[in-house]
Amino acid sequence: MAFPSAFALIFFLLLLLNVSHCKTVKRDAKALNEIKSSLGWRVVYAWVGDDPCGDGDLQPWSGVTCSTQGDYRVVTELEVYAVSIVGPFPTAVTNLLDLTRLDLHNNKLTGPIPPQIGRLRRLRTLNLRWNKLQDSIPPEIGELKQLTHLYLSFNNFKGEIPKELANLPELCYLYLHENRFTGRIPPELGTLQNLRHLDVGNNHLVGTLRELIRFEGSFPALRNLYLNNNFFTGGIPAQLANLKNLEILYLSYNKMSGAVPSELAHIPRLTYLYLDHNQFTGRIPDTFYKHRYLKEMYIEGNAFRPGVKPIGVHTLLEVSDADFLF
Predict the structure, then answer these.
(1) What is the DSSP string of 38-91?
(2) Helices (DSSP H) in the chain: which residue ranges?
(3) Could you tell me the sign of the dihedral formed by the alpha carbons of 115, 120, 123, 128, in that order?
(4) What's the rounded Cα separation, in Å, for the pair 233 and 251?
(5) 3-class DSSP state for residue 31?
(6) Is the pTM above the cut of 0.70?
(7) What is the pLDDT of residues 245-266, one digit of tens each?
(8) Helix, strand, or coil here: 268?
């Protein structure tokens, strides 16, 4: 009776031994070694050996996560951030076809995102914020069908926001603030059924809210909408109240005008409303002052009638990217 148990134990140990000696697939090892040769000393000193997933007594390279597929190991995550990487986006990264997470934020990367980025079909998180990346976002980014988190803020991107972003059905969080984008926000983004957070603040965008929500049922899951510090015009359409999940509406420092519709106060969980430094007129409907969840409403820098009062203590709203990473 003990023989089967002993046999099973031996088989299990042999299996572990085999897994421990799996080699990293040559494609990934070559790509990581190409990246290693182009990075600064801060990363290279921790990348010991030729196998990024570890070999024998050597640990996996810092910031590299691997998983076993059959007889090989593949790289599934690459996190190399805040280490002052200088130079262009490392194109060899796009050969890591099993990546689910790529985090190169807070470095000094320059130049464009290469169109080959579209090869990373399993990517779920792409974090390139706080770099010096330039040019337009390649339309190939719309090929990353499993992407849920996209962080491109605090760079020097220019041109229009590509409508191909609307091809990302799983996208939940889209950060494009602090760049040099021009033109209009593609209204096609409103068709994204899972988009919760859209931040395009501090750019050079134009257009109206009416254009943004032109499609019926736009932005069904959206909670936070940041349009601040751009050149948006026109008024607040009553149809904006159809965004029933909206909690934060940030319209500060634009060129918007007209009256604030009372329908906006019917958004059930509206918590922060920033209207300041526009050209709004009239009065604030009383329903806003009776709203159950509305904590802060900024109204200064407009042409409201005398007697209109703000709501809340008016501490600056700070929302960290880290709040939405997972």
Answers:
(1) HS-HHHHTT--SS-TT--TTPPPPTTEEEEEETTEEEEEEEE--SS--EEE--G
(2) 2-20, 26-38, 41-44, 209-212, 286-289
(3) negative
(4) 10
(5) helix
(6) yes
(7) 999 999 999 999 999 999 999 9
(8) coil
